[in-house]
Amino acid sequence: MDDPSAEAAAARKALAEHPFGDDAAEKRRQYVAANRDRIREMNRLWRSEHLDRARELNRDSMRRAAARRHREAEVRARGRERAKRWRVEHPERRREYQQRWVAENREKVREYYNRYYEAHRDEVNARAAARRDADPQRTKQITRQWAERNKERRAEPQRNRRSDPEIYQSELEANAAARRLMRSLSRAGLPPKRLHVATAAERRANEHEADAYFHDPSRPEHLRQFTVFAESLTEHMLKNGACMREFAEAYVETRARMGLPPVPVENIVYVRAVEIVTEQMRRVDLLTSRDVAAAVRSTKAAVGREEQRQQLKDLVKMIVNDVGRNRERYYFDSEFENRLRVNRGLARVPIESLMVEIALRNVLQRVPTDRLTADDARHAARIAKLYIAASTHKAKSRVDDRIYLGLSDR
Which residues does the annotated region (Disordered) include (predicted)? Predict the structure, then answer.
């Protein structure tokens, strides 16, 4: 069998001496298609025998390809520069060309837009929403202008919807109910119902703020610090509020004697409390001024509720004790009050209620009630009445027991 490398060399020599025409090229393509494996094997054998030459040829080919790519890139860059300079020098002609091309290729432009929108739907919608949110006034103006231009188009869906008798009747009933509510509020002297309809821009802003808040990696530690700080501040004020208030009052008096501007006592109390609690906490690096203000508001509310509860408790206790000390006098006063009511044609009132009412009038002058309201006073009176009724029932039971024991001894 002949050497494949020799055959390949002879074939290349014949090809160089006798260039192919069209028929020869077609025959060569047919030959290559019919002998792919043989040609591949011949190339492999030649490369194995002439490895250095093959590598040299490969390097030369790569250098020529790189140089060709470099030349083509330079040509394209020069073309872009020329086109850029031309566009800068002839803006009107460029604009005319673009407008003419768009006018001549409406379908193609629409196809391009639709294709891009389908591939980048979320990005396009996000950019449009950001553009609307950046200038809400212009967005409202554009919306109003569109509504003015398309009145009939906007009215058509409403007419189609109200063509259904049930839907139309339900809308009439809802409108009538709204008018009745407005008239009722007006007769009662109350303001009309007001609803703030959040716009799409406001909803997107709220969602963005919520996402930023809840997806913040430092949020758990931030919430922990805020919770501990608020609880510690409340506990400190409930435990040491009185002494801190005394200190603040003395501080304010000292400032007044020195001729300095007055400062509210409440501010001094909570500023000092915040300083003390902050020094006691291990970490407060994530707390902001808004967090501190929120904790102070929460503490003030908690302290107010505790003071109200304590004043209510003291008021009930004072009423019960006052009735216990002056039961006989209050009893006769209550009987006298009931007789006067009967003479006026009014119904009698339970003795316990009148006794509690008399005691309440006397006690209110001796106990602090700045945190209590009229409803709290009535609630305290009801509780005191229950205590008094229970104590009266127990005393009566003890008297009955003594009578029974005395009778049994006889």
Answer: 1-27, 125-167
